[in-house]
Design brief:
Blueprint lengths: L5 H26 L3 H22 L5 H20 L14
Helix pairs in contact: 1-2, 1-3
Length: 95
Amino acid sequence: MAAIDPLTAGAVFIATAATDAVYVMFTSAVIARKRVPAANWSAIWYLLSSYAVISYTDNAFYVAFAAIGSWAGAYASLTFLHRPPGGPPVGAAPE
C-alpha cells in the first residue's frame, strides 16, 4: 500500500462531506418540489463527487476517507435540516 498523503486524504474527506451535504439539500429541494434549486444542487453534487472519484482512484485506501466524509456531510446536513416533529420540511411551501 502506498503512503497516505494527509493533504489528499483531507481534501477527499472535505469533498465527500460537501458532496453528501449537497445531496441532502438536493433531496430536500426535490421533496419540496422546487425545480430550480433541485437542479442547482444536482449540478453542484456532480461537480463535487467527480473531484472525490478522481482523487482516490490512484489509491483505493482513500475510499475510507470518502466514506467518513460522506457520513459527516449527511449527519451535518440532517442536523441543519432538523425540525421539531410535526413541522414541515425545510423548503416546503407555507400552508
